[in-house]
């Protein structure tokens, strides 16, 4: 793996871990976001699981220096945030949570995905 792909992978893993931990008792901006896209509160826990599994996959791939693992997981993370964008648009919930959180995470995961896929090719 390239140094840039490795650093990007660790950054994305750290951000996802932080997001998952924050989501255990979500602050107002996370609650507004999930409510804004009409995700039932009974399902909020599933997002924590998805983010923790993605974190574990990214760290595993980075520690093994295996770009095929990190590329696969980062593609999944990117897909997660693309669907988050779609959810925001469909719900017409386009406030600051969308512009800062959703698009910011999509951009970060897109860059890391490009670096990791580039490391495989």
From TrEMBL:
UniProt entry keywords in alphabetical sequence: Membrane, Transmembrane, Transmembrane helix
Membrane protein topology class: Multi-pass membrane protein
One Pfam family this sequence matches: DoxX_2
GO cellular component: membrane
Coiled coil: none
Transmembrane segments annotated in the record for this chain: 6-22, 43-63, 69-86, 98-119
Localisation per UniProt entry: Membrane
InterPro entries linked: DoxX (IPR032808)
Record protein name field: DoxX-like family protein
Organism: Corynebacterium lowii
